[in-house]
UniProtKB/TrEMBL annotation:
Protein name as it appears in the record: NAD(P)H:quinone oxidoreductase
Pfam families linked to this entry: FMN_red
UniProt-listed InterPro entries: Flavodoxin/NO_synth, Flavodoxin_CS, Flavoprotein-like_sf, FMN_Rdtase-like_dom
GO cellular component, one term: membrane
NCBIfam families given in the database record: PRK03767.1
Transmembrane segments: none
Species annotation: Idiomarina abyssalis
Sections of the chain in a coiled coil: none
Ranges where the Flavodoxin-like domain occurs: 4-177
Enzyme class, UniProt record, top EC level: oxidoreductase
SUPFAM superfamilies: Flavoproteins (SSF52218)
UniProt keywords, alphabetically: Flavoprotein, FMN, Oxidoreductase
Reported cofactor(s): FMN
Length: 185
């Protein structure tokens, strides 16, 4: 079964809502969604899922990385994790695997796109093939909140995803899984 790691940090649950919708997309495409988090011990809701280990990135077929928007880029616990992956980088543990990104923010124009693009940088350094959301996904045309060609996103104006945000997140999980399955077959 195609194993897709969804690696994220979420203090209060908004980014976790996206992680769960992406996991739904992975599962609906026949993959195994492996939810992993960073920053354990800070009382974050993402403590629900096991803390990521470096072996997780070696063993996966694809990886989807998500963070709350923090002053326009990723949360520090995620950055800290990537700074401990030199060995996996040298070994090419993620090279040629599909990767994708997601974020949540409290204001609509508060930096979602810069966070998505900067989340992509460690994945590209690790040799991953970046997967976005194509405009063939109807929700991307219709959304009045989150959802971007660069990745899934959520504008946290209520305590749930809008239907369009959810559709974009599911589409991203499916697309990454489909690519990973084709590559490993
Ligand atoms: C230190 C800090 C910096 C933040 N920076 C931004 C920001 O630049 N733009 C924005 O719209 N929201 C910002 N936020 C709000 C969070 O991105 C937003 O509440 C997010 O949805 C939280 O996700 P979570 O519930 O998964 O923790 C910031 C929050 C914190 C604590």
């Amino acid at each position: 079964m195609t194993s897709v790691v969804i690696l994220y940090y979420s203090r209060n649950g908004a980014t976790q809502r996206l992680a769960d919708a992406i996991a739904e997309g992975v599962t609906s495409a026949g993959g195994e969604a492996v939810l992993r988090s960073t920053g354990h011990g800070s009382n974050a809701v993402s403590d629900r899922d096991l803390e990521v280990e470096n072996s997780d990135i070696e063993n996966c077929d694809a990886l989807i990385l998500g963070s709350p928007t923090r002053f326009g880029h990723m949360a520090s616990s995620l950055q800290k994790f990537w700074e401990g992956t030199s060995r996996e980088w040298l070994q090419g543990a993620l090279t040629d695997k599909p990767g994708a990104v997601f974020t949540s923010s409290s204001s609509l124009h508060g930096g979602q796109e810069s966070t998505l693009l900067t989340l992509a940088l460690p994945l590209i350094h690790h040799g991953m093939m970046l997967v976005g959301i194509p405009y063939s996904e109807p929700a991307l045309h219709q959304t009045q909140s989150g959802g971007s060609p660069y990745g899934a996103s959520h504008h946290e104006h209520s305590n749930k995803l809008t239907e369009h945000e959810r559709q974009c997140a599911i589409a991203l999980g499916k697309r990454v899984t489909n690519f990973a399955s084709k590559l490993s077959s």
